[in-house]
């Protein structure tokens, strides 16, 4: 603990802005001391006169690039006039004058909150408002792009540089926006805030006021464009993050935890003193049920603290500051990576430990996780519906992390509190919830449970007699024989303490043991998985999804057809089809369980794929994709529209034959793992 505390006890840091960026944001806009007539910027009915802003844009002598510094200097008086203008208005006047022009954004109600923040004169609230405003604007500009374009750029910088937006708003207008939010050479307000570089007092409120008026002005230009082009305005709906379900590890944050966090954040060296107001406002927002606001502040400040730690443990103190236009920012993408840009090992993951890294990857990076930072910073989330559960997780994690950077005596006292002791235990035992490995395990167990329910759907007696006459067909017998051979082969690769070798010939299929739950308990490394591993996992996940689709379809069709049989509403052909379905289902159940067992075993040995040659890897992927093709065909054949039950038996025989043939080549991961173990023993 002492070493962790000491590592951040260096000279006090007063700013995370590099000298030139600090100068750009905090000084340049105030150098020209002249007053601007607000009527030349905004008319009395709220119409924005873009010429007042575009006339301030300065270009380099070649006229091929913006002169950002000169432009910011000239725009300063315009921003100041706009800020004084908004400051002189009541909230009612603001809404009458500007609300109609802000409806084009996905969250027009947000701007009333921005006005309140500006009126409050509270720096953290203004910075938070500017973060939310830039995210909302980015989302709205993406909707405008899609009026003409097809694939919206992911980065705001690229979006503002697109021909599509220039076509709608005009290039001079886009140049103004690029000065404020679209380039590291300019004010770059969006990035310095969302990446946790700017402290509250370093963002002049006039820039927030200017962004409000510019957003209204864009709404006016958009209205004219839509009238002329007659294109329909159809913004994308905002998303609501789903419940975490078992992805939530920490319990609800209690008042006891909040009290500890309030105490710890004032003494933890993880937090820069200039950033403490953000943490304080985050807790206020949580207590007032503004969970998206709390999460936004926590995420930016976790990034700020982790960047400081990253710069310290990797001995690169300059990486703490905002980058110049010629260099990259040090953002979470690099902070949480395995290697530095120069190829050296990143020391931060080793310092934080695997559980903390897994949590951060789960909530920020994994594609199938909540990706909270991305969704919030790009304006994709319906903020009022942001889940409290996610904010609980972020607060709990932050509490445990901050505790690592306080004095040993205080840490010992706080860790004796029952709630904190529980959080520390959960944090230290954290394992990935949203990594493809974890999701695949969950998928396999869920699908197994679904398939296990099939035998609970009894067959009508008359149908049983029909099925009995069809039992023992050549193709069904061939399938059963292949299943037994493949299952025996797979059983031999189950780890010793879970080995089961029953005599399958003398056991009915429904009593075959499938040790899927036991296999899911094996630890598989998930942090920094190489691309080859992720590719294989993706195919296995697709196979698992298709198996689940088949299971759902079969269960639904069975219930429906059985009811219709009992009610005698099936036509003759449909009755015959139900008999074929009954026969097919009896075969499909163990086949799908066999595929799930294959997935589970390959998952245990997934990292063995890294030992394959390029040719072996390609052949292995081809084999997995053939199983995927089989499951996709099953989905099609078992759908209510097709009901091709006889064909499913033919498909199944072909698939089993392919699995057995590949198994004999000993090229599955279970075989290669055994080979590598044998070599190690030798």
Task: Give an account of the 3D structure.
α7 runs parallel beside α12, α25 (474-491) runs parallel beside α28 (572-604) and α28 runs parallel beside α30. The model is unreliable at 678-682 (pLDDT under 50). The longest helix has 36 residues, at 531-566. It is built from 31 helices and no strands. It is globular and about 95 Å long. The two termini are 43 Å apart. It has 682 residues and is mainly alpha-helical. The protein is 62% helix and 0% strand.
Ordered list of secondary-structure elements with their pairings:
Layout: H1 2-6, H2 19-26, H3 50-54, H4 68-87, H5 91-98, H6 110-120, H7 123-148, H8 156-160, H9 163-169, H10 171-182, H11 189-194, H12 205-229, H13 255-264, H14 276-287, H15 291-313, H16 332-335, H17 347-352, H18 354-364, H19 372-377, H20 388-403, H21 408-415, H22 418-428, H23 436-452, H24 461-470, H25 474-491, H26 516-519, H27 531-566, H28 572-604, H29 614-637, H30 645-664, H31 669-681
Helix pairs in contact: 4-12, 6-7, 6-12, 7-12, 9-10, 13-20, 14-15, 15-20, 20-22, 23-27, 23-28, 24-28, 25-28, 25-30, 27-28, 27-29, 28-30, 29-30
